[in-house]
Amino acid sequence: MHTAGYEIDFVSPQGGKAPVDAFNMNDSINKKFWDNDVYRSKIENTKKPSEVNPEDYVAIHYAGGHGAMWDFADNTEIAEIAKQIYENNGVVSAVCHGPAGIVNIKLSNGLYLVDGKKVNAFTNEEEVKVKLENVVPFLLEDQLIAHGAIFEKSAPFTEHVVTDQRLVTGQNPQSAHSVGKATLKELQKLNKSTK
Asked: Where is the DJ-1/PfpI domain (predicted)?
């Protein structure tokens, strides 16, 4: 996104230093991003939700990691930011466990954001394979389906990305790069439609 001309900010439930989990520094893109002093500082000094004006953003992305299951699912402040960005014709994206952040978002029409949309996330089968199905507070696949999502998936730990009505979701860490590309494609569509 950065190389496409978009500025990136980071928000976390409490602000401050965000935990970084399983960050592969052998990946040249990760390394370049991490070595960028501006973005490294932004990760180490994330904004609080109260410091974010949704009007200033065209997209929001929920990063993955198991912590998202506890940190994002019931965070009404970040959900409100995402709702406003989406309702302002913006893009909402999430990968792996990041869709925990979108599972409970209700739009102004009273429907869940995911209701009637093709979505994917870390699957029940993947959760079993990592032996955390009894640790997480809920199974993400089940909860998305319960809130009306049309859940799509591939074999465990294979890349799978779904885009539906400015909502971009990826199944697992293997899908992260493609989620970024799909999100950029959605943003480019929006730019064309506003010109």
From this structure: 4-185
